[in-house]
Amino acid sequence: MRWIWIDKFIEFESGKHAVAIKNVTLAEEHLHDHFPGFPLMPETLCIEAMAQTAGILVGEAKKFREKVILAKIKKAVFFDYVKPGDTIKLDATIESIAPEAASISGRITCSEKLVAEIDLMFSHIDQNLAGKEFPEENFVFGTGTSVFEPLLRDVLSVAGKESGQD
Amino acid sequence: MAMSRDEIEQQVREVLIEALGVDDDEITTEATLMGDLGAESIDFLDIVFRLEKAFGIKIPREELFPAEDLMNNSEFIHNGKLTEKGLAELREKMPHTDLSEFEKDPDINKMGDLFTVNAIINYVENKLNAA
């Protein structure tokens, strides 16, 4: 299993807004345990999928130079189940972005129906207020994470290719 | 479009309820953000973002919560306490906060206590009046 919970971006407006989709399928093993006879995409993974959508949006806003990590789940409210066969749409909007952090609001929908509202905060950890130091290598958007390029294939021609080149 | 202090306090309360997940009755003006309301470092940024939106103001980095900056400077800190120079710097950076109690024993461990609900209300009030 690879820890990627979105399939591709379908909209991307740099520094502002992005939409990714995920196709949920019974080939995902965990669905057979969550729950036996009643497979649902775990809500925790819906939050992770939103964090990946929004995290890439926030990362791209600074040309993937910052190490962007999820710092706070401000809100996560679920209105419906996500089941195998569903294509969910993860819609993330940057509310605020500063040198040290970013705040986003997110909505998950399935066939136009609201599934969840998820608001998150990300930290640019090199800019943290405590002045802690982290490894120089960008372990978030570094070269080992080239999977971001296929995710962005349809929406970014230039910015996506710059990822991990620093 | 002047806001009264009560209106400012009400908005600040709403920001803190949302950002920290606390109840309205936990928020007294003397309550400290870290000690009483359980704020962590990322919450400070969350609060800054929310205040900017709620009041339509721009809050520069370190202006509202400048303590971390001081902590990293040996000129300002000696034996776990703020030096005269450090205190002077803090006074300059936090004009919206009453430091008279803290000055009697400027232990850096107590700096967290300076960030009270009242300090935020004062800060926003000054900021709105200056605009």
Task: Please provide a written account of the structure.
The complex is a heterodimer of chains A (166) and B (131). With 166 residues, chain A is an alpha+beta fold. Chain A has a single domain (8-155), classed as Roll (Thiol Ester Dehydrase, Chain A). Chain A is 14% helix and 34% strand. Chain A is built from two helices and six strands; from the N terminus they run ββαββββα. Chain A has helices at residues 43-61, 148-151; strands spanning 8-13, 17-23, 68-78, 87-97, 101-110, 113-124. A six-stranded antiparallel sheet of chain A has the order 1-2-4-5-6-3, covered by helices on one side. In chain A, β4 (87-97) and β5 (101-110) form a beta hairpin. The two termini of chain A are 28 Å apart. Residues 158-166 of chain A have low confidence and may be disordered. Chain B has 131 residues and is mainly α. Chain B folds into two domains: 1-58 and 115-131, ACP-like (Non-ribosomal Peptide Synthetase Peptidyl Carrier Protein, Chain A); 66-113, no CATH class. Helix content of chain B is 50%, strand content 3%. Chain B contains six helices and two strands. Chain B has helices at residues 5-20, 41-55, 67-71, 84-93, 100-104, 117-130; strands at residues 77-78, 81-82. In chain B, strands 1-2 form a two-stranded antiparallel sheet. In chain B, α1 (5-20) packs across α2 and α1 packs across α6. The longest helix of chain B is centred in the first third of the chain and has 16 residues, at 5-20. The termini of chain B are close together. The A-B interface holds A 71-72, 74, 95-96, 98-101, 103, 121, 123, 128-131 and B 18-19, 41-46, 48-49, 52-53, 61-62, 65, 68, 72.
